[in-house]
Design a protein that fits this description.
It is a single chain. The strands form 11 sheets. Strands 9, 10, 14, 37, 38 and 39 form a 6-stranded mixed sheet that branches. Strands 1-4-3-2-5 form a 5-stranded antiparallel sheet, with no helix packed on it. The protein has a 5-stranded mixed sheet with strand order 16-17-18-19-23, with no helix packed on it. Strand 21 and strand 22 form a beta hairpin. It has 602 residues and is mainly beta. The longest helix is centred in the last third of the chain and has 45 residues, at 557-601.
Length: 602
């Protein structure tokens, strides 16, 4: 029988069948201030017909969703959110594909300490005097020579390094010696110690802790140090030592802990040691927004692509590690906040604007959490986490154009494991059965060509990044064609007009080699009768040389099968070449569109 504990009409019921130790079956219905009980004995004191061994625990779940009952309607609320990235998993590299024996720095500075691009990986190292960092070829895996040449031109410890997003051979570094230096890396790697930089920026009065390249304008870099200043520099000037920055931004009352640009570089977000987040106009240095919330003490901040939102990591009032989401137009209160754990390491956020995935890696942790971000509430959707016993001191990230699209790799970290002097590549992979190119997880992404010059950006022009396709065989680099069409304007542009192929470009080169083989096979051949009387085969001559690729007609079933397989392989190769032609046509259409857009803005 049912007994009503409160005389209220309930609107939502959760039903749970649970046997008691007295062999009575209870039906419990929970609402706000309501509880219903049902006893299988009917209130007569007699036990029900259920025996003690029969333990029923029935939850009304249908198709992985919770069935919500109502007095006047029935609604459906799915338990899981559908996502193509729900099953993304982390795949660490094997021992042979790691970088072993790297003397990683013991600095306690909370930076990534590592930077990567499709050609090189750079990591800050420990050294006796001055500061240095190591630049290795991306394919130089295995044991690293302890005497490997380094970039060692700083007089103090190196605190941060960043590759130029538009030049795979240009890297910037900042140091405790209060300078920022720009280095030119030889095409074949560092074969001897490099001590003379290409440019030296002198403007800070104390050590420089952070540097950040502009995401769309060429030759623009920002730096900040322990003098609380954010300085803007331009590199397309003839001087080798630059002492006068373009702009000095003085809106911070303490040390800046992180900097992040939005997609077109028109806004700069910073987090400061005073636990505040600021949004600044990087051209004028005007403070646009500032947080004044004491519930979240931010340490790192990140723009979330085109979502017009900011993400920050830090600590809550109870000193729990926390992530918070902010509207970039209103920083009064966070739109979303979530406590993660009670550890003390700094949380490094990484965002992929193509897949809308957010990765959270803690300093000193072995795990990496990842989420999916949506523009609607609840904004942050937890996916899963990668767990490892090896703690990371820093993290490097490979740009999207350097990923292995053939294995459905959507993100790649380079973990710095200090306890083993190891750099471990970690690939985030979307599991797919098909080995073909997955266009739904590889949309058009930011390329390696600047959208505008430094003069255009300083004058007030804003442009989004020029996009590229990651499909194998598509042309990734626009710099060579652009420079040939308009001609270099100065020595600086000439220095940075080299072709910079990534992993997809290497695939393109292999496809070109296959096409060359097809052209060789398609050369006109001359059939000559064999001089051997006992031989009925025909000798093939191609370009004056004997061609061994042709053979006599198959005589056995095994030979016939082999010939069939060869023919199928040739058909597949020709189909690939035909697809590459289509991709090339689409790429040329995209280049024409970019040229028209650039001419329209002039």
């Amino acid at each position: 029988m049912f007994t009503q504990a409160a005389g209220q009409k309930f609107d939502c019921v959760y039903v749970d069948f649970l046997p008691s130790w007295s062999s009575s079956l209870f039906l419990r219905c929970f609402t706000r201030d309501l509880k219903w009980n049902y006893n299988s004995s009917g209130g007569s004191g007699k036990q029900g017909s259920f025996s003690p061994p029969l333990f029923l625990h029935l939850h009304l779940f249908f198709l992985s969703g919770l069935r919500v009952l109502s007095t006047d309607r029935m609604t459906w609320r799915p338990q899981y959110r559908s996502s193509k990235y729900r099953h993304v998993f982390g795949k660490p590299a094997t021992k042979e594909n790691c970088y072993d024996g790297v003397p990683i720095t013991r600095s306690v500075h909370d930076n990534h300490l590592c930077a990567a691009n499709p050609r090189f990986i750079a990591v800050i190292t420990e050294c006796a005097g001055g500061g240095s960092f190591l630049v290795l070829s991306i394919h130089h895996t295995g044991k690293v020579d302890p005497h490997h040449p380094k970039v060692s031109g700083h007089r103090g410890n190196v605190l941060d390094i960043k590759w130029n997003p538009f030049d795979d051979f240009c890297i910037a570094s900042c140091s405790e010696d209060a300078t920022v230096k720009i280095w030119d890396i030889p095409e074949h790697g560092v074969l001897k110690n490099i001590t003379v930089p290409w440019k030296e920026l002198q403007g800070h009065s104390r050590r420089v802790g952070l540097i950040e390249w502009h995401p769309t304008a060429n030759n623009i870099i920002f730096s900040t140090g322990y003098d609380y200043q954010v300085l803007m520099w331009r590199l397309d000037v003839p001087e080798q030592v630059i002492k006068n920055p373009v702009r000095s931004i003085s809106v911070h009352s303490d040390v800046v802990l992180s900097m992040s640009f939005n997609t077109d570089g028109s806004r700069l977000a910073t987090s400061c040691k005073d636990k505040k987040i600021r949004v600044i106009d990087p051209r004028t240095g005007t403070l646009l927004q500032e947080t004044n919330c004491k519930l979240h003490r931010a340490s790192k901040v990140l723009f979330l692509g085109n979502l017009k939102m900011l993400l920050s990591t830090g600590n809550s009032r109870w000193n729990h590690r926390q992530i918070a989401l902010w509207d970039q137009e209103d920083l009064s209160q966070p739109s979303y906040a979530e406590d993660l754990d009670g550890s003390s390491g700094v949380l490094f956020p990484f965002y992929d604007s193509d897949t809308h995935m957010l990765y959270i890696a803690g300093k000193g942790d072995g795990n990496i959490r990842y989420y999916e971000i949506s523009p609607e509430k609840p904004y942050v959707h937890y996916l899963t986490e990668y767990r490892s016993l090896l703690p990371q001191k820093g993290m490097g990230v490979m740009p999207k154009r350097g990923l292995d699209v053939c294995s459905c790799e959507v993100f790649r970290f380079y973990k710095l494991v200090t306890i083993k002097s190891l750099i471990e590549p970690l690939s985030m992979i979307v599991p797919r059965r098909s080995e073909s190119y997955q266009e739904d997880i590889y949309p058009m992404t930011a390329g390696n060509k600047p959208a505008m010059t430094a003069d255009e950006w300083i004058s007030g022009l804003d442009k989004g990044p020029l996009m590229m396709s990651l499909r194998p065989g598509s042309k990734l680099d626009f710099n060579v064609e652009a420079d040939l069409s308009k001609g270099p304007t100065d020595s600086t542009e000439t220095r940075h007009s080299r072709s910079r192929p990534g992993l997809s470009q290497l695939i393109h080169e292999r496809l070109d080699a296959k096409e060359e083989n097809v052209r060789k096979e398609s050369r006109p051949t001359l059939l000559l009768p064999s001089t051997d009387e006992n031989s009925s085969s025909t000798t093939y001559v191609s370009n004056g040389q004997l061609d061994s690729t042709h053979c006599s007609p198959p005589k056995t079933e095994n030979e016939l099968r082999q010939m069939f397989y060869k023919q199928q392989e040739e058909i597949r190769r020709l189909r690939e070449l035909l697809n590459q032609k289509d991709v090339r046509m689409k790429q040329l259409e995209l280049e024409i569109k970019n040229v028209k857009n650039s001419q329209a803005t002039l």
